[in-house]
Design a protein that fits this description.
The protein contains eight helices and no strands. Helix 2 runs antiparallel to helix 3. The protein is globular and about 55 Å long. The model has no long low-confidence stretch (mean pLDDT 85).
Length: 264
């Protein structure tokens, strides 16, 4: 059964990774960098998708699974959520990274290139996404019905929709900064590789002890919400108040919610 779960997880996270790679490939077709308004739309949309996915694809299934196991949902759901946020906070403090458009690196001091630190910044975003998609497809592999698989597919589509512009948001600015086209594409593509890695690792951990699955699901949700609140929403509203950023967050939430309702 574990092999089946890993296979499903590899397919799901492979799709979301491919979406990032295809987005990074836009560097071969477009010469101009993304406009600030476009970046706000992409970042806001990603934030909305991740919030909706955290609720419908992670927290609600975590509650239902805990109840099926005869547990009180409060501890695994609340505890896992807090641990997920704390995990991303620690990674954010320790990992040297640089956000696009910023000149001040974050994390521990390190002698790394600007390109490497930008890739690490987006990689931090992709860790909880890989965990979420991997877990969703793992549960689909355990469920003989079509509901779990449809929900996992909906999550993968939602993540793919926001990963595509994310890949472009890395490669295009890097090329504008003087990085070669091939290197800019590679940097954008590599940021998505972390999703299959963490997706499969999470399935291995959760699959070895099924009782921890509610904890792991809420853990992934906490990590995703941390990314949204700490980075995506502030970056979608730089400078003056932005209605564009707010509208894009709501659109992303709506799209992910409808995907889950219609497919899941």
């Amino acid at each position: 059964m574990l092999i089946r779960e890993l296979t499903f997880a590899a397919i799901g996270t492979g799709f979301t990774c491919l979406a990032t790679v295809l987005g990074a490939a836009m560097v071969f077709f477009f010469r101009e960098d993304l406009k600030p308004a476009t970046q706000k739309i992409f970042l806001g949309f990603a934030a909305g998708v991740m919030v909706a996915a955290s609720v419908w694809s992670l927290l609600i299934p975590s509650m239902e699974m805990a109840e099926e196991m005869g547990q009180s949902p409060a501890l695994p759901v609340g505890g896992g959520f807090l641990l997920g946020g704390a995990f991303l906070m620690v990674l954010d403090r320790l990992t040297p990274h640089l956000h696009i458009g910023s000149s001040d690196p974050e994390g521990l001091p390190a002698h790394l290139s600007r390109t490497t630190m930008i890739v690490l910044a987006v990689t931090l975003h992709n860790i909880p996404e890989g965990m979420a998609v991997g877990l969703a497809f793992s549960m689909a592999a355990q469920d003989t019905g079509s509901g779990a698989l449809a929900g996992a597919v909906a999550l993968a589509i939602g993540m793919g929709l926001q990963n595509f512009p994310e890949g472009a948001a890395i490669s295009l600015p890097l090329r504008s900064d003087g990085v070669g086209t091939g290197r800019a594409f590679t940097a954008g593509a590599l940021s998505g590789v972390v999703e299959p890695i963490f997706g499969l690792l999470t399935v291995l951990v959760a699959g070895s002890v099924s009782l921890v699955m509610p904890w792991v699901l809420s853990f992934a949700a906490g990590a995703m919400i941390y990314v949204v609140v700490e980075e995506l929403i502030p970056e979608a509203h730089p400078g003056e108040h932005s209605h564009v950023g707010t509208a894009s967050v709501m659109c992303g939430f709506l799209v992910m919610m409808l995907l889950d309702v219609m497919l899941g």
